[in-house]
Design brief:
179 residues, alpha+beta, Alpha-Beta Plaits, two-stranded antiparallel sheet, rod-shaped
Length: 179
Amino acid sequence: MSTLASNGVLASFAELDAATGAIKALRKRGLKDLVVFSPVPHHDIEHALEPSQSPVRIFTLVGGLTGTASGFALATYASMSWPLVTGGKPIISIPAFVIPAFELTILLGALSTVAGLFINARLPRARTRVVYDPAFSVDHFGVLVVPPSDRVAEATKIFQEYGAVEVRQDAGEVRIGTL
């Protein structure tokens, strides 16, 4: 569920440790709608954000199981509709049906993975994020939090305690969701 707010607080940090400390402090106080801007990926930021497991794997599992069931159903339907008895073998022969079932498992698993990725990433995005600073692509770390209106001062204080180079309130129109 995405929220639209105009009271975001954006902080710029020169050091990674200060940014991760601020992220941990915000999460400890219950402010979990965070977006982090980083010039390069860091595992410290990932650990501080404590991301949940991606639900895309459920899409893959459901797609794969649907493909398996569809493969066996298709082969069974074809064998029952047009039976071909050769050498006294049974009409429904499971070993022969494994190949189409496997192929449909891979096909539907891959397609549902791509669909799950697009759904969970909310792509294509109709609106882009308004908040950004070019320094986040060079040497600074940015932490954006959208607290309730009565907790904006608390978020600003946390950023200042952890040594933010710059703190901006009312950072602009921000759309944040659970990714």
